Model the fold of this input.
Amino acid sequence: MRKVLVIGGGAAGMMAAVTAAKNGGQVLLLEKNEKLGKKLFITGKGRCNITNAAEIEEFFSAVVSNPKFLYSSFYSFTNDQVIDFFEKLGVQTKVERGGRVFPASDHSSDVIRALEREMGRLGVKIRLRTEVKELIVEDGTVKGALLSSGKKLYADAVIITTGGVSYPSTGSTGDGYRFARECGHKVTELLPSLVPMEVKEWYAKELMGLSLRNIEILITDGKKKLYREFGEMMFTHYGVTGPVILSASSIVGKRLKGKELTLHIDLKPALAQEQLDRRVLREFETNHNRQFKNAVDGLFPAKLIPVMIELSGIPEEKKVHEITKEERLHFVRLIKDFTMTLTGLRGYKEAIITKGGVSVKEIDPGTMESKLVKGLYFAGEVLDLDAVTGGYNLQIAWSTGYLAGMNVG
Done:
């Protein structure tokens, strides 16, 4: 019976442990935290967006870094198989907007408990509060791991599933990158991803806490269009966050290093400019004797009104019937193109995932085994793989963890 060591008790690690044990491996899972799945517990705001219900072919377009590498992983353990796996373990699921799949209970703890029960059933040994100092490698083959306590653990195969460096409070402190480098692996540039962004403008603070639904964003670098998305966003004291912003950060994050980008928000994407102009005209005609500041309640949430009035350049006390056509058209253009200057990403403490990681060029995509060290496998966020929001990143963890677990035997 092959001895398998799994380092890291997150999504990929637990899935790798379950799969390796099902295939007859004698599995020992090491986790430096006091409990398993600490980061999994907080994903999806504590509800755990397990995967997405889209067709598996569509997953590749949701992956930002190295989608082709995931071909074997995604097809070996698809989203449908993930849902089936958890339902068989007693976790009923439901599908929400955008195909996001959640536990029906809305509790991430149910997902973690199901994995723990399955590991227990399969005889996986778990050691918590156990930190690995370094890997033991001899003649190009991994032999086990040296613990911080000085104890050596020997194994026929080692799977590294230590995650990235996002949410460091959950124990993601980049250990896996160090192990990989010490074994001669290249680790690509790391960046926080699926993370809020900072803006320059004064009015971000004024709008703090305001959520906008059914808006469209466009991010540009000069005349170059980088990212366009329809959905929800929210203002914070430092800038912007919310689903469309988080997904955008994974696409534009690298460009934000040392330069500024422009965020264009279309507040009324369902209306063409001419249609919106007619709508504004109707509002103006209904309120033609009122002051401008009291005539736009029907167009925006209350918190946005003073900012839009200020940016419109139309004096707030001006009577609506005195507003010129040029002023009105400028106001309409502002609604269709409300801009902010993006100045940077927030840090790893607020990032859902880490962009970058162990170079996939040095990993066999069909097995997850290192091409440099025999018997050494990698899975999950420690690899240079990331996707937009919507359950895709957890699917990467499940699929790569499964493939590593399948192949250690």
Summary: The mean pLDDT is 96. The two ends are 9 Å apart (CA to CA).
